[in-house]
């Protein structure tokens, strides 16, 4: 029973020595340091220090009797008051603590997806943000290494329904020039970049407030990154390139 009580006191915030001395004081009543130390199983010199901390917490009181001081435990219900005071102090400073936490750079969250279904899941995630423009670097490799029907029969219709416009940068090719003929009906604006000095074989989508989708059709994997800083940086690069192209 005593061990259980001591464990509960530890969970309430007392140290092991404090819990031992406090339980000893409850059992012994008005008593001396020597008896408390012996009952709690700690050294007398250590007991003095522990008693001082318990006195500061209002759990132990001392009085002088003749030539020596004696100690006794305060009402256990004071533990409730102690915990309540601690909670009130934490509640008081919580707004400042939260303000500090918002200033801390958080590590980006990265999720990895494999195979064609994994790649589809990366694109499906972009549909969670209706009326929010998506910026994209497209790669024509989807035509040879992916199921083109997914875009025509699932992704594009759902994107249109959710009114998600796209601005895209694409490398020049006959296939791409045929693909962009449908820009208007697909709620898409595109600009073409010459393949000379520009070799992009992955797709990169910037969407939502902090999401980046990366897809490699040939390697059959995709990544979703959640990072405000990476999102903003890539968006700035996209806008720079977009502005430079005719």
Rg over CA atoms, rounded to whole Å, is: 34 Å
| β-sheet strand percentage | 15-25%
Strands of the largest sheet, in order across it?
Answer: 3-9-8-7-4-5-6
> Class by helix and strand content?
alpha+beta
Query: Quick one: how many beta strands?
Result: 9
Mean pLDDT: 83
User: Structurally, how many domains make up the residues?
Assistant: 2
CATH-defined topology of the largest domain: Endonuclease, Chain A
Helicity, as a percent range: 40-55%
CATH class of the largest domain: Alpha Beta
**N-to-C span:** 81 Å
Shape category: rod-shaped
Number of helices: 10
| CATH superfamily label of the largest domain | Endonuclease Chain A
- Written as H for each helix and E for each strand, in order along the chain, the element string is HHHHEEHEHEHHEHEEEEH
Low-confidence stretches: none
Q: Tell me the CATH architecture of the largest domain.
A: 2-Layer Sandwich
What can be said about the biggest beta sheet? 7 strands, mixed
Explain what the structure shows.
The protein has 246 residues and is of the alpha+beta class. Helices cover 50% and strands 21% of the residues. α2 packs across α4. The N and C termini lie far apart (81 Å).
Overview in brief:
The longest helix has 26 residues. This protein is of the alpha+beta class and 246 residues long.
List the helices and strands and how they pair.
Layout: H1 2-11, H2 16-28, H3 33-40, H4 44-56, E1 60-65, E2 68-73, H5 78-103, E3 109-114, H6 115-125, E4 134-137, H7 142-145, H8 148-161, E5 166-171, H9 174-179, E6 188-193, E7 203-207, E8 211-216, E9 221-226, H10 228-244
Parallel strand pairs: 4-5, 5-6
Antiparallel strand pairs: 1-2, 3-9, 4-7, 7-8, 8-9
